[in-house]
Amino acid sequence: MTWSRALKETARSGLTIERAKLTPLIALRGSVGVAVVLGLCLWFGDPSLAVSSAFGAFASGLVTFQRSMRPRPVLALAVAAPLAVATFLGYLAAPYLLAFVLLLAGSALLAGMLWAIGPVSGLIGTLTIAIMLVTVTLPTSVLGALEHAALIALGGIVQAALIVLFPVRPWGVQRDALADALAAEADYARRLRHDPVAPFDPAPLMDARLASAVTPRQARRRPVQLHGPRGLAEQLRPVLASLADPVVGAPQEGPQRDRARDLLAAAATVLDAVAHAVRHAGPVRLPPEAMATLEVPASGPMLQGAARRSAYRLISLLADAVELTDEPVEATRPTTEAERAHLLRPSVPRLVPVALRAVHRETRWSSHILRHALRVSAVCAAGYLLGTALPFGHGYWVPLTSVMVMRPDFGQTYSRGVARFSGTLVGVAVAGALMAVAHPGRYVSAALAVVCVLLMYLLMRTGVSVTSACVAGYVVFLLGIAGEGWAQTVQERVVLTLLGGILALLSYAMFPAWETPRLRDRLAEWLVANGRYALAVYDRYARPAERRPRQIREALLDARAARAAWEESASRAEKEPVRHRGLSRDSATAASSSLATMGRVTMILEAHLPDKDAEPSPGAAAFAAELRPSVERAAHAVRERCAPDWSALRAVWDRWDTESAGEGVALRAAELLLDALDDLAEALSREPGGSEPTAGP
């Protein structure tokens, strides 16, 4: 993609306004928190204290709207505490330009590294730097700095208290994540009716797993509807795929295929009903037509072989899903320390070493997180010096804009830069005109600031340009409380915002961290993870007596994580103005499809695992023994820009096919697996500049 096209695409993305689900009660609660803190400080204190406290409550409320499985009060306190500390240190260093620039650069570096922990942590770091830049410009003493910091912390405490006292949809995030997973399964079942090898995005299941991780205290209070459906959704996916697959399930045409389509349609109806019940905390309502379809016909079973086993398993799982969710919502199940039926979420203190390890893993020159942190640090320092040197005053708006715009990847940085400038221009123009015409007093300005906060919280999901306009108006009205002239504020904010955006965009162009050259590494990691998943399943066929379901489960989760990492990298690479030095777009698409098919075939085979007393399969044992070294050689070939060679694994399958007494599910699945791997080799061999298939070292 050329630079002109990349800039055009990112600008269009940034200016897009999307339709989103509004949450008026949550937005009202967050804006009430800002109003309470702002009103109290105006009543008992001076305007500068009111501005500081309002920024603390604003940031604490803002972070609670981010998608996180953590309790919202914890998030509110998590942003208030570092913001209060950073503000106090900023006040101490503000009179000394060099000391403040060094503090700003170091804080920005740390804030940039917080993206290694997760997007919510990264946002907390960004807000800390942005609000510190504004609050430290308000005149005060050391004692006043302590007072400002305390009021900022008070803003977070007030927001956390409101969340506890006035909960809106308790367990709502968990309910939505689980309902989305069940709805995704329903959509998958419908697509399988028309496309027996339809792809499935495992992201909803991954989100549901994160939402299911709770502390022992939370497990004792969790509603009944959130206990079991996620596990059933995990089990349903391979059963649905196995029933629809034309090789190991129902035939492509005929009465058995018609019966399979009817079962898939009924399963989709049931899963949608269960998802609706979970999302809205109500009973499961099923149409009688779907229940009749899930019964065995009076003339006897119409499906045969593996398809028949999949159908019985599907009916059983659907019945369990309805039974688990169609219970009183108020009922809870006692949980003891010895019980391990739930996924344990570590407490906040236990997350500290995990976070430190995550940051340490990114302290390498090739890391896009480290490069982002260095960019933010350099741009903040340079922007502050530039803003201070310019004759406008309020030079902190340059680094403020930069830090709010910059993200670890190219696409988000450039799209947010365009969106923020356009939104800021609109917000400043509207708020400035209102200040010029009406000349509102202190309390009216505070009320208008709260209205801007309410609009921003309400329209949070619609786009960066909309929220930037609301934030711009909020800042103008707050500074009006502190006595800032409206005309000066408008002029400075427009010019300095533009400078800050330009600095942010130039920093990525001059010191990039492109994802495109790393695509082959991500593809190789996905191949290795898929290989371990297939190896774990075939190992079960080779040694059925040694049941190790945890090994298969962990391998599946690793494969999903590797796929998610690949898809994220591929999505970033599509927006980068870089000539491909790894994979072309066509080759990446074909390779991704091949590995997705590999994972689907393994998942289908997992639905037909042998019983503990089944006979070991020598063919499966030989296939598994060759699969490990073949995948390792193939991963090396992918990284070295060569097409992998699967001839050794194909030879093992040929012997297995010749010596096999009959066509078992494992043998047929191995053939499909090899076909997918051959498609991968073909996709990579078409890559310009690539070489012929090689067996590796």
Automatic annotation (TrEMBL):
Residues 84-189 form the Integral membrane protein YccS N-terminal domain. It is found in: Cell membrane. Keywords: Cell membrane, Membrane, Transmembrane, Transmembrane helix. The chain crosses the membrane at residues 26-45, 51-67, 74-91, 97-116, 123-143, 149-168, 373-397, 417-436, 443-460, 466-487, 494-514. It is a multi-pass membrane protein. It holds the Pfam family FUSC_2. The keyword Membrane applies. InterPro entries: Memb_transporter_dom (IPR049453), YccS_N (IPR032692). Residues 568-591 are annotated as: Disordered. GO terms for cellular component: plasma membrane. The keyword Cell membrane applies. It comes from the Bacteria. Residues 384-506 form the Integral membrane bound transporter domain. Residues 568-579 have a biased composition (Basic and acidic residues). Its main location: membrane. PANTHER family: MULTIDRUG RESISTANCE PROTEIN MDTO, P-HYDROXYBENZOIC ACID EFFLUX PUMP SUBUNIT-RELATED. Belongs to the YccS/YhfK family. This is FUSC family protein. It comes from Streptomyces piniterrae.
